[in-house]
Amino acid sequence: MSDKTLRFDRLEPLREQVDAWRAGGDRIVLVPTMGALHSGHLALVAHAKAIGQRAIVSIFVNPTQFGPNEDFSRYPRDTETDLALLAQAGADAAWLPSVETMYPTGFSTRIEPGPAAEGLCGTVRPGHFSGVATVVTKLINQVRPDIALFGEKDFQQLQVIRSVVRDLDMAVTIEGVPTLREADGLALSSRNRYLGARERAIAPRLHAVLAEMAERLARGAEAAPLIAEGTTALEAAGFGPVQYLEVRDAQTLAPVVRAEREARVLVAAYLGATRLIDNVAVVPA
Fold it and tell me: By the 8 A CB rule, do 64 and 221 touch?
């Protein structure tokens, strides 16, 4: 790791450095991650450097947002590679808290987010968004950034975090950054490395189906028939189970019958043993 990127695994030295940067007039931008960094994460770092003077990247695989049968134990971890990538990207600091630092003995507080967490991943991953809301609140309180960046691939998560920050009067701006994709349309994700060669060849169909649905919705088509067609198309391509395929209002996440203002088509589906999520914006003509 280059001298440009400072590594912190204890909170007090991190806060001392952040306070020194802020005293010098620097704007602090936080990029929360779970590691296994890819080009999408590095694009967030580049954006952080474009809008602020100091980019801090947290790397923490958060156990409280994983269900009992999910992939916490096998989630990809490669800290040294991640740190090398952050140095190349020009990140100013890496925050690497341990589970014991985040959840010390006696920790008992959880944040229960509101309506934005209902349905979609909130239904199929019970407790997930409580874990997300709690850890993001802690990260923001620890780093005290001016801005925190989140990718739009996890669109419901982005809206949950926005609602928590608003409701709790947290002094941070939450900014969503558009999804970065492979040339064939597959959204970049740390979990893509789970895909075998055959599955990787199928995976781009997820975005293709969403994009076609979004185009037809933008022209005034009703959501329900397109959802049925899209689910059939995904299953025929080899996805399954399709946990959800829905059209939701982009601001409220309420279900949409026909897109009269900006909406999102959102999906979660398994491809073999790998769970993939994606979403595409619907902008009515």
Answer: no
For residue 149, what is the DSSP state? E
CATH, domain range 6-177: 3.40.50.620
3-state DSSP helix/strand/coil % of the chain, to nearest 5: 40, 20, 35
Would the pLDDT of 1 be above 80? no
Which of 41, 47, 128, 207 is flagged as catalytic?
Answer: 41
Whether 41 is catalytic? yes
Other Cβ atoms less than 10 A from the Cβ of 30: the count is 28
> How many CA atoms within 13 Å lie on the side-chain side of 16?
7
Question: Cα–Cα distance between 14 and 7 in angstroms, integer?
Answer: 9
Convert the pLDDT of each residue in 178-227 to its tens digit: 999 999 999 999 999 999 999 999 999 999 999 999 999 999 999 999 99
Residues 6+ apart with CB under 8 A from 278: 153, 179, 187, 206, 207, 210, 266, 267
- CATH 3.40.50.620 boundaries in the chain: 6-177
The identity of residue 92, as a single letter, is: D
Closest CA to 171 of 147, 198, 142, 136: 147
Q: Which fold has domain 190-282?
A: Pantoate--beta-alanine Ligase; Chain: A,domain 2 (3.30.1300)
| pLDDT digit string, tens, across residues 237-264 | 999 999 999 999 999 999 999 999 999 9
In the chain, CATH 3.30.1300.10 covers: 190-282
